[in-house]
Amino acid sequence: QVQLVESGGGLVQPGGSLRLSCAASGFTSSTYAMSWYRQAPGRERELVARITSAGGLTNYADSMKGRFTISRDNAKNMVYLQMNSLKPDDTAVYYCKADTVSNRGLRTYYWGQGTQVTVSS
């Protein structure tokens, strides 16, 4: 079975930190670009960060630059999101996504089930 399972969410006070993890199984995650998305109630799902298959390039949404860091360990089929200086506006469900395109142009992607992050005093 193909799975992406997020963990590490929870309740944290403003200014605090959390590290989210995404465990991939059932496929070779090292051939996929990996991303973190988030969705708050009543809002559209938005890209948080993305990392290339080899981990050489990353990009972030503007509101996350300087606070969040995406990384991966392909040997362990793991992707991480380190979140620092958290704000109440960061409260959302955070999702892990895997994405690849074959030599024939066929796109394949998978989503995790999400993990809740709540930033509140």
Provide the fold topology:
Layout: E1 3-7, E2 10-12, E3 18-25, E4 33-39, E5 46-51, E6 58-60, E7 68-73, E8 78-83, E9 92-101, E10 107-111, E11 115-119
Parallel strand pairs: 2-11
Antiparallel strand pairs: 1-3, 3-8, 4-5, 4-9, 5-6, 7-8, 9-10, 9-11
Description:
This protein has 121 residues and is mainly β. The chain contains no helices and eleven strands. Strands 2, 4, 5, 6, 9, 10 and 11 form a seven-stranded mixed sheet that branches. A hairpin with a 6-residue loop joins β5 and β6. The chain is elongated.
Throw out a few tags for this protein.
121 residues, 4-stranded antiparallel β-sheet, single chain, 11 strands, 53% strand, 7-stranded mixed β-sheet, mainly beta
Query: Tell me, what's the shape?
Result: elongated
Strand content: over 45%
Number of helices: 0
In terms of structural class, how would the helical and strand content be classed? mainly beta
The residue-averaged pLDDT reads 95
What are the low-pLDDT stretches, counting only 5+ consecutive residues below 50?
A: none
Rg, nearest Å: 14 Å
In helices, the fraction of residues equals under 10%
Report the span from N to C terminus. Answer: 39 Å
The main β sheet shows up as: 7 strands, mixed
